[in-house]
Amino acid sequence: MTKFVSIVSGKGGVGKTTTAINLGAALSLFGKEIIVVDGNTATPNIGLQLGVSKSQFSIHDALKGEKTLRDAICTHSSGLKFIPGSISLEKAKEVDTQLLHKVILDLYGLADIILIDAAAGIGKEAVSAIKSSDDVIIVTNPEIPAITDALKIAKVAKENGATIYGVIVTKISEKTDISSENISALLDAPVIAEIPEDSYIKKALSMKQPVVFSHPEAKSSIAYKKLAAQMLGQTYSPQIKKESFIKRLFLKSN
Q: What pLDDT band is residue 176 in, cutting at 50, 70 and 90?
């Protein structure tokens, strides 16, 4: 059974896309088939962060009815499967994002979990992703502006009948003023992960890699892997490293 999960945020710049990519990569380490979909048709970033600035097909082609989402699946060097968006401004203007809940069904049965990287904010793109999902995960920073906007997206999610699986708090540091306990109380949802501020995330981004693949021992990598284990009801082991990706890729090629 395929589960559809939207990764949302009340504002941009909180690490939503980074979380979608790395959570997807971490879940893959546990032997699950994962596809990360760029649901932000106006300003897509999944392909850019994974080193694919131009692909043969994209989610835009599926929304226009010219191709299916299956046609647009790409495979990253880490083994992570993803569907990019087109960076063409013309294509962004041509698509109807409200069709996402229909075209996304083409992926049913292809993966255990489909992660949709929704557009930031509470606009129609974000709402479309929420309506296309079984569960919603909210990403926020431990800062008042981000939490205030997270409250808005939480309300929108509930108004659209979505189940909020939990909250991921990114960019945690010693200077963090708002505790995860307070964030959970404010958003009326459990904090399922705390992702530390980590310079390796920027290094991984420059390498066009998920940090859980490029720097498996980084604090952020471990946090994403622990979350993946928790979501799957499994036990996290420090031995789940980069070699797991290589082994999986080798098995697939034989």
A: confident
The whole-model pTM stands at 0.92
* Structural domain harbouring 64: 3-253
Q: Is residue 35 within 8 Å of 106, Cβ to Cβ? A: no
Tens of pLDDT, residues 113-132: 999 999 999 999 999 999 99
Q: Report the alpha-carbon distance of residue 175 to residue 156 in Å, rounded.
A: 30
DSSP line for 63-83: HTTSS-GGGG-EE-TTS-EEE
Q: What is the residue whose two structure tokens read 């501020």?
A: 197
Residues 6+ apart with CB under 8 A from 76: 50, 51, 52, 82, 209, 210
User: Is the distance from CB of 224 to CB of 212 less than 8 angstroms?
Assistant: yes
CATH of the domain at 100: 3.40.50.300
**What is the enclosing helix (H) or strand (E) of 192?**
strand 191-196
SS3 for 218? coil
Domain count, the chain: 1
Residues 6+ apart with CB under 8 A from 101: 128, 131, 132
